[in-house]
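INPUT
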Amino acid sequence: MKLYEYESKELFRRHGIPVPPGRVADTVDEAVKAAEDIGLPVVLKAQVLVAGRGKAGGILKAGTLDEVREKAARLLGSEIKGAKVTRLLVEKAADIADELYLSVIVDRVGAKPLILASSEGGVDIEEIAKKSPEKIVRRTVDPFIGIRDYEARLLGLKIGLPKKLIGQWVKFVRGLYEVFMEYDADLAEINPLAVTRDGGMLALDAKVIVDENAVFRHPELASEELRDARDLTEFELKSRQLGLSFVELDGDIGIIGNGAGLTMATMDTVAYYGGKPANFLDIGGGAGSELVAKALGFLLEHPRIKVVFMNIFGGITRCDEVAKGILEVLRERSVKKKIVIRLTGTNEEEGRRMLREAGINVFSTMDEAAMKAVELAREV
Amino acid sequence: MVVLVDENTRVIVQGITGREGSFHTKLMLDYGTKIVAGVTPGKGGQEVHGIPVYDTMEEAVAEHPDANTSIIFVPARFAPDAVYEAIDSGMKIVVVITEHIPVHDTMMFVNYAKSKGTIIIGPNCPGIISPGKTKIGIMPGHIFKPGRIGIVSRSGTLTYEIAYALTLAGYGQSTAIGVGGDPIVGLNFLEAAKLFEEDEGTEGLVVIGEIGGDMEERLAAMIKRGEFTKPVVAYIAGRTAPPGKRMGHAGAIISMGTGRAEDKVRAFREVGVPVADTPVDVAKLLKKVLGR
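OUTPUT
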């Protein structure tokens, strides 16, 4: 779960990471009031979760209250890369001399927190990794010991920070590590971390992603109602309400599989034979007829989907249950879209017989079925 | 010879009285797995499919000192506790089936297990099977058959799909390990590959990877260094997955420029490991690399 910048900065404040003075505003009047209280010049920052917000015009500087009024009105209600702006963060503008990068992520293979630091802040870490990988300094931390000051000092010196800034830098590393650990973060990032002309240091931007599986431990972060629509498409939002594991793509062949790996492999196989998968929909292991019907019904409602390809390898899932779910959907509604089914595994004969009797294409291998789905999508 | 588990492995099922735990205990017993005890706090004294249930691991191990492996079917919120209990009661291998355990919890118990010399398989995994000998997991047993191919995979059903195709093509398996679909797992591809390298009963390895992280790239680097020398065939799921979206598994996400399928495919091909374009091609490629 991604947190908004202002939420992330609140966590930063609690852990001693300096951030610019700022306040959120949901209306133009609130923005003007905030600017008056904070003092000009200010920066108005759209609170959206899309990457590249600055370049897309979501961050505007204002030197007078009239400018604040005009620019806040322009931002509020606008769309930044498809995300609607309903809230601004009004912040005191900083006088920037240099921009650094600092983050804490999970080192998967090492099973430890990993700190990344660079002197090249202000651009994506991906871009730094591409352009100047030697400028990224890494350090894994033993989670049972936690971050030691000497480790933070070492990182600072390795990215070439002047000695007089090291004391401040240590506070950022320590604080960010604490935020990462305390809030079950997948990522805690400061980019840019600004060095100001008066020799101070500030977290100008803030990004925290909390592990979805750990949100129950942080109810205070999940209570925000704005969160519902966080970078999900309309159908993805609907799928959440139905409890389906669904991701939308832009093709026309609807995909249902059982198990995440198999469902991805099904998408890939469709693409391999020249088709365009419309989505990922995993019904998991041991699905009953009800879940099958729910998943199939959901995809049939999608306007872009021409053909639905259901690929089931029955282990714990029983093929006859799957067939029962499919037949339920066909009984209850008139379906004009083509459906291709691949059924193999537990009770496959029974499942295939039930479907054949109803005149549905059933295949026993994934490749044959994928080719058929691609062929049908071309005909429509 | 097989890897990690065989007919002598003695298993305790943690969470044996739950729906999943009880269901799979039955299937494992039917397969021939030697389950000696079950544990569910508060349910001690009961029996599940004839297996005695205890309140704690300590009691279970006191009554069944030959137990050396546990399998966990405990809901995510209580699973980390069950893992620590298994480690502290001296289990050599702990298979964690549970999905949705917070990554930070897994990070801590994986490090703890390493410090105690316990091997964790999972979380969010189908388990481990040495066909014809034992099955400690939730995979359908009948699609596997004894043989000389090792399988290591991040996925469940896709492993069954490929294993079944191998079985039909005449390639039986020494051991198949589902390492799990979470960002952090206990036994990883590199450690598993090392075990298969040392196992005389394994002639070749099938690797089933997916998007997210760089475990596949690191395995490719290990092969390049000459630390894994047996024939390998790989399959990578998620070539069509968009970046930034979690594809079912918590670990299946392309983020910060890492975890793309094309990078993994390239890494394997660069070290001479053929990568199958579709799951069914795995058996064909295996025939090529094994020459039989």
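end of record. The mean pLDDT of chain A is 93.
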